[in-house]
């Protein structure tokens, strides 16, 4: 009984040539690598924001009206510490949300890749 259901499941698979299977597999692997790279990049950016915020929080406690320079869209602007800290916190939180969203996408794509490998009988050599 179990073998007939697995035969039916395999018959629902699209008939792909070995080259198409390989291309799909490589495409899925490249998508995973791209997502992992973007996640790493954004995590590094969030860490940089955290480092800057820890320094600015000390300045905020001692001297909130102290001059502070911030790069916005390639333009260096002068602000005060009390103006910059909330904006940096918002940016860091947004980056963290993006990282968690990308991590969920990564897990979904990873599951898709595993099911693709299972469906087409692929195993590591």
From TrEMBL:
Keyword Nucleotide-binding: no
UniProt KW keywords: Chaperone, Coiled coil
Ranges for region Disordered: 1-20
Coiled-coil ranges per UniProt: 25-59
CDD domains: Prefoldin_2
Keyword check for Chaperone: yes
GO cellular component terms, semicolon-separated: prefoldin complex
GO MF terms held by the record: unfolded protein binding
Top-level taxon: Eukaryota
Name assigned to this protein: Prefoldin
Source organism (scientific name): Macrolepiota fuliginosa MF-IS2
């Amino acid at each position: 009984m179990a073998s007939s259901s697995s035969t039916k499941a395999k018959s629902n698979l699209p008939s792909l040539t070995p080259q198409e299977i390989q291309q799909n597999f490589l495409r899925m692997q490249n998508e995973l690598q791209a997502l992992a790279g973007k996640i790493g990049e954004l995590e590094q950016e969030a860490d940089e924001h955290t480092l800057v915020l820890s320094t600015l929080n000390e300045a905020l406690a001692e001297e909130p009206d102290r001059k502070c320079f911030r790069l916005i869209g390639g333009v260096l602007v002068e602000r005060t510490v009390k103006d910059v800290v909330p904006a940096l916190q918002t940016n860091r939180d947004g980056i963290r949300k993006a990282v968690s969203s990308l991590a969920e996408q990564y897990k979904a794509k990873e599951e898709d890749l595993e099911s693709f490998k299972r469906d087409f009988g692929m195993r590591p050599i």
